[in-house]
């Protein structure tokens, strides 16, 4: 489907769902910007216009019940700076993620969301500022993150071994998490043969395998269908309600009301809503 056609249908579906005009316009502009900068296929990036419109409408609905009171700090970023090729990507960013808290990180393309998550995952170093992570980390990158020539079960064993799980425990935990996303991982072929949405599910499962203290998820439900996206949030809420911490990267206005706190990069990294 051509991008212009997809955008036109998205706008129509948002109007049909009675999404407020200002919110609908922001959703359309954000999607159009992402598709233009990434040169992405709209169906691969967001799914069908009707399904994505419904997801956005649901995201603007009243928030789910709050989880337990946030506790121990698992990640703290203070005054972090990062430059690429002479361009400032992160400029004095502050961020805190605690146990029992799901924090949403939003902002326009190129504002440094993925860079900040990679810094927290220990894959990049900041040019300045302080970064502290307490405990084990599970990381799902925006792209990749899975071994293309291994089956999901083989990847569960590989990742599980790094987290101290036996072969049986790793497969059991991976299949359990996959089941929460309505995916039968036990019978799945190698990752290269999976659809984009299913590979995304695999990436989420690998990040959560062994229950690390902190989940770092970079646009984890991009490419998921509507039902799978809802199941992702239910999995995340369960994670939070059991006292775990999570930082989720998403597009602006995408699931704003589903998180306990929202931080927007590009606006002095000020929290839009706090879980305090």
From TrEMBL:
Residues 75-276 form the ABC transporter domain. It comes from the Bacteria. PROSITE patterns: ABC_TRANSPORTER_2 (PS50893). InterPro entries: AAA+_ATPase, ABC_transporter-like_ATP-bd, P-loop_NTPase. GO terms for molecular function: ATP binding; ATP hydrolysis activity. Pfam families: ABC_tran. Keywords: ATP-binding, Nucleotide-binding. This is ABC-type multidrug transport system ATPase subunit. It comes from Conexibacter arvalis.
């Amino acid at each position: 489907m051509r991008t212009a056609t997809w955008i036109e249908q998205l706008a129509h579906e948002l109007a049909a769902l009675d999404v407020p005009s200002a919110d609908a316009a922001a959703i359309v502009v954000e999607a159009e910007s992402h598709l233009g900068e990434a040169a992405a296929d709209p169906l691969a990036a967001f799914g069908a216009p009707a399904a994505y419109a419904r997801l956005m409408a649901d995201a603007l609905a009243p928030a789910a019940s709050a989880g337990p009171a946030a506790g121990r700090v698992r990640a703290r970023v203070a005054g972090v700076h990062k430059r690429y090729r002479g361009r400032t990507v992160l400029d004095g960013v502050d961020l805190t993620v605690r146990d029992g808290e799901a924090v949403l990180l939003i902002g326009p393309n190129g504002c440094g969301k993925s860079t900040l998550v990679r810094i927290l995952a220990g894959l990049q170093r900041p040019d300045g500022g302080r970064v502290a992570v307490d405990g084990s980390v599970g990381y799902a990158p925006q792209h990749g993150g899975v071994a293309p020539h291994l089956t999901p079960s083989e990847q569960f064993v590989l990742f599980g071994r790094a987290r101290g799980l036996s072969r049986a425990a790793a497969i059991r935990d991976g299949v359990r998490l996959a089941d929460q996303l309505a995916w039968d991982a036990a019978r799945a072929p190698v990752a290269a043969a999976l659809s984009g949405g299913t590979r995304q599910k695999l990436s989420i499962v690998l990040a959560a395998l062994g229950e690390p203290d902190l989940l770092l998820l970079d646009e984890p439900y991009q490419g998921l269908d509507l039902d799978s996206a809802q199941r992702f949030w239910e999995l995340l809420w369960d994670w939070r309600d059991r006292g775990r911490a999570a930082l989720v990267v998403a597009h602006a206005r995408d699931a704003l009301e589903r998180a306990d706190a929202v931080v927007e990069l590009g606006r002095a990294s000020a929290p839009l809503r706090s879980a305090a």
